[in-house]
Amino acid sequence: MGVKQILRAMDAFPRAEEHLLQKTKSGAFVSIVGLVIMSTLFLHELSYYLNTITVHQMAVDLRRGETLPIHINMTFPSLPCDVLSVDAIDMSGKHEVDLDTNIWKLRLNSDGHITGTEYLSDLVEKEHKHETNDHLLQSSVRTCSTLNRSVYLFFVALHGLQTGLSGSVTVPGNKFKACNDHKDHHDDSDNKTHMQGFDQDAENLIKKVKQALAHGEGCRVYGVLDVQRVAGNFHMSVHGLNIFVAQKIFGGTTHVNVSHIIHDLSFGPKYPGGHNPLDGTERILRGASGTFKYYIKV
């Protein structure tokens, strides 16, 4: 018994014998139309099943006391980690300066490679000493001091040194090791900074940042920032430096290079297929300074 006969045997509906059938053109037309309709419906349902439909809905969020996680991964190729800081302001009146939670900074050399794995912290000193530290210090160009600090980061909106750079020049929790090389030169520099009224922490910070700038150091900042579910803004600045310290370090506003690359900037839990419009954004300045502002609705 062939396959055709087997399939016919499985048919539960009785069929009339061939000599009792009369084939007509109208019957053939009805059969063809029926097959076309069935094929069309089948293809439509298959397409509906395979395709993804995106539905946009807007509703009022009635939850209170919950935070929104912001995932950040950015590179600043021309600013040392020691001067990067973030301030946050929201409509509820909350104002935080130099945030520090779940965000880390990694020093980069002039080629963009990580030169150390220590976490840097402004508010809480987190010293992580590794066996490779000695090798890194020897291979670098006479790195004279160590600084362990970490900064909370969000948007890049660098304010010029001439606008509102104020506050204490004392950096809490930082301990430096001064170099013994060129002692006479350093003593002379110390005398000059003392004459200008800088305290010891400010003097050490100036030396540290100048050395990092001379070596072409940058900074990679990554982590998660938790914010309230209200409108607000975050801006990156040069560590909220006292204007005199900032002028001593950079020598002018045009020398503050805020070039940056946004590797990841997303809001809320990670969602498959989600598109983050600022991912991959590059803003590179050459021989100039500037301010970059990003406006996002979440």
UniProtKB/TrEMBL annotation:
<dbReference type="Pfam" id="PF07970">
    <property type="entry name" value="COPIIcoated_ERV"/>
</dbReference>
<dbReference type="InterPro" id="IPR039542">
    <property type="entry name" value="Erv_N"/>
</dbReference>
<keyword id="KW-0812">Transmembrane</keyword>
<dbReference type="GO" id="GO:0005783">
    <property type="term" value="C:endoplasmic reticulum"/>
</dbReference>
<dbReference type="GO" id="GO:0016020">
    <property type="term" value="C:membrane"/>
</dbReference>
<dbReference type="GO" id="GO:0030134">
    <property type="term" value="C:COPII-coated ER to Golgi transport vesicle"/>
</dbReference>
<keyword id="KW-1133">Transmembrane helix</keyword>
<feature type="domain" description="Endoplasmic reticulum vesicle transporter C-terminal">
    <location>
        <begin position="178"/>
        <end position="298"/>
    </location>
</feature>
<feature type="domain" description="Endoplasmic reticulum vesicle transporter N-terminal">
    <location>
        <begin position="7"/>
        <end position="96"/>
    </location>
</feature>
<keyword id="KW-0472">Membrane</keyword>
<dbReference type="InterPro" id="IPR045888">
    <property type="entry name" value="Erv"/>
</dbReference>
<protein>
    <recommendedName>
        <fullName>Endoplasmic reticulum-Golgi intermediate compartment protein 3</fullName>
    </recommendedName>
</protein>
<dbReference type="InterPro" id="IPR012936">
    <property type="entry name" value="Erv_C"/>
</dbReference>
<dbReference type="Pfam" id="PF13850">
    <property type="entry name" value="ERGIC_N"/>
</dbReference>
<comment type="similarity">
    <text>Belongs to the ERGIC family.</text>
</comment>
